[in-house]
Each structure stands twice: as C-alpha cells, then as structure tokens.
From TrEMBL:
Cellular-component GO terms for this entry: mitochondrion; nucleus
Protein source organism: Cacopsylla melanoneura
Residues reported to bind Mg(2+): 72-74
EC number(s) on file: 3.2.1.143
Cofactor names: Mg(2+)
Protein name as catalogued: ADP-ribosylhydrolase ARH3
Length: 209
C-alpha cells in the first residue's frame, strides 16, 4: 500500500505568482463561507446573492452589521490537506488522515456528513493503521461517491501544478481517504484540473481511481 507520494513537483512555469496561490485558497474559502449561507435551499434568487455581495462590499457597514460568515467542513478538510502537504513536502496518506481526524474532533460542528464522521471515528479507533480501509468498507464495499474529495482539492492542484500525472495521483489518493467510489474519485480528478488539460485528464481517468 503506497501511502506516500514523492514524485517531483517542480512547476513547468516557475514564474507563477504567489498571488495566484493565495487567490485560489482565499477564493475557495470565500466561496465556502458564502455558499454555506444558502446551503440546503431549493431555490436561491440571484437577488439574494447580489444583496449579500453588496453588503460585504459596503464600506459604510461595520462588522457587527454584516451577516457572520463561517467556513464549513469543506474548508476544514481543505486546510488539513494543505497543512499536510506543506509539512511533509509530499503526499502522506497517514498524515492527511490523522490531520482530518484531529481537525474533526477539535471542531466537529462544521456540517460534516454522517458517512465521513463514521470514517473518522474508525480511523481514530484504529490509530490510522490503514488510512483507506474505513472508506473502502462503506456502503457494502462500494464506497461513497459524494463530492467531498472535489471540495477540498485546491491545495493538491497548487502543490503539483507542474506535473499533471502526479497531480491526479495525489488527488485520487487524497479523495480515497473518505470517498472510494469511482464517481467520487473521478469528480475530484476533474475538479483538480478543470482549468486546463481536460482531454488529458479524461484519458488518464481510466488509469487512476
């Protein structure tokens, strides 16, 4: 079982601005916080979204006059992926799983789904002896096909942006800690590389995940 990926991640374009990385992560955070306000609603009028943005950009409003924004489990897990990649300078499945577990038990009320909570409980009980086993066992062995892997994938795209095959491999392995169904994995693979190389990504889907 390969729980560590150490392939080179040297970018093809070393001139990519740090602002791009910051913008990607802040954009994911802001999207999560704003999206959480509308989560669960069947229909969201565009006027509601526009009104919210007007309030957020209104310099005359004080902080206590604004709708409070809180990040959800998606950002909590995205942050965990980023922390692990930075800490290890490579993908380490056991460390990512441990970070997920620690983050959840420190702040469990961020909207985690019941299935992923079951994964974290088992990982903690077994001391992450196999970071992929609890997710593999779910739904009679078929695994979850939810979108959790895609929701937290941004740090993987940034970490391995110079090597598409390595990027997709890390994306698949990161996703399989909680979602092992092919649809869940493939959704994350498309999301991690959705801005470019779509045809190449689709070709590689048959070999990864």
């Amino acid at each position: 079982m390969n729980t560590t990926s150490t392939s080179s991640t040297q970018p093809k374009d070393s001139k990519i601005s740090v602002d791009y990385f910051i913008g990607c992560l802040l954009g994911a955070l802001l999207g999560d916080c704003i999206g959480a306000l509308f989560e669960g609603q069947q229909d969201v009028p565009m006027e509601s979204v526009e009104d919210l943005f007007q309030d957020l950009t209104n310099e005359d409003l004080t902080l206590d006059q604004l709708v409070p924004l809180e990040f959800t489990d998606d950002t909590a897990m995205l942050k965990s992926v980023a922390e692990s990649l930075i800490r290890n300078k490579c993908f380490n499945a056991r460390d990512v799983a441990n970070t997920f577990v620690s983050e959840y038990f420190e702040s469990p009320k961020r909207g985690y789904g019941g299935s992923v909570v079951d994964v974290f409980v088992k990982l903690k009980k077994d001391k992450v002896s196999d970071p992929f086993q609890p997710a593999r066992e779910q739904f009679n062995g078929s695994g979850s096909y939810g979108n959790g892997g895609a929701m937290r994938i941004a740090p993987v795209a940034l970490f391995a942006h110079g090597n598409i095959e390595h990027m997709l491999d890390i994306a698949a392995q990161t996703t399989k800690i909680t979602h092992t169904h092919r649809l869940g994995v493939h959704g994350a693979l498309l999301q991690v590389n959705n801005s470019f190389h779509i045809e190449e990504t689709l070709r590689l889907l048959t070999h990864i995940g």
